[in-house]
Amino acid sequence: MANELVHHINEDSFNEQVLSSKVPVVVDFWATWCGPCKMIAPMLDAAAMDYDGRVRITKVDVDQNRALAAKYGVQSIPTLIVFKDGEVATKHVGALNRSTFDKLIADLG
């Protein structure tokens, strides 16, 4: 299920889409060959709809954006990094379920 609320970004659009965002941004570092990444994609699509206007969901393909993945210490995927006010607020490595995702967002305060 493709969702226009989930934004695919790259190194060129990262600053504008993530660091300059007025709302918290979840960045899903993923790859097309990653099984667990594919497994959580429908949950992220649903979360993007549920949090629309309050939290932005984005995806960064680590194979196409290696420097960005390295900059944020991504060594295993999926890795979700939540940015708030341009700073890393929290990080989760590995697949997760919706309740764990919702807790990451709730912990933003």
Task: Record the SSE blueprint.
Elements: E1 6-8, H1 14-19, E2 25-30, H2 35-50, E3 56-61, H3 66-71, E4 79-84, E5 87-93, H4 98-106
Parallel strand pairs: 1-3, 2-3
Antiparallel strand pairs: 2-4, 4-5
What does this structure look like?
With 109 residues, the protein is α/β, with parallel strands linked by helices. Helices cover 34% and strands 26% of the residues. The protein contains four helices and five strands, in the order βαβαβαββα. A five-stranded mixed sheet has the order 1-3-2-4-5. A hairpin with a 2-residue loop joins strand 4 and strand 5 (87-93).
Key words describing this protein structure:
alpha/beta, single chain, 109 residues
Radius of gyration: 12 Å
Return residue spans where pLDDT drops below 50 for at least 5 consecutive residues.
none
Could you give the order of strands across the largest sheet?
A: 1-3-2-4-5
Average pLDDT value? 95
Structural class: alpha/beta
| Overall geometry | globular
Largest sheet: 5 strands, mixed
Write a brief structural summary:
About 35% of the residues lie in helices and about 25% in strands. The protein has about 110 residues and is α/β, with parallel strands linked by helices.
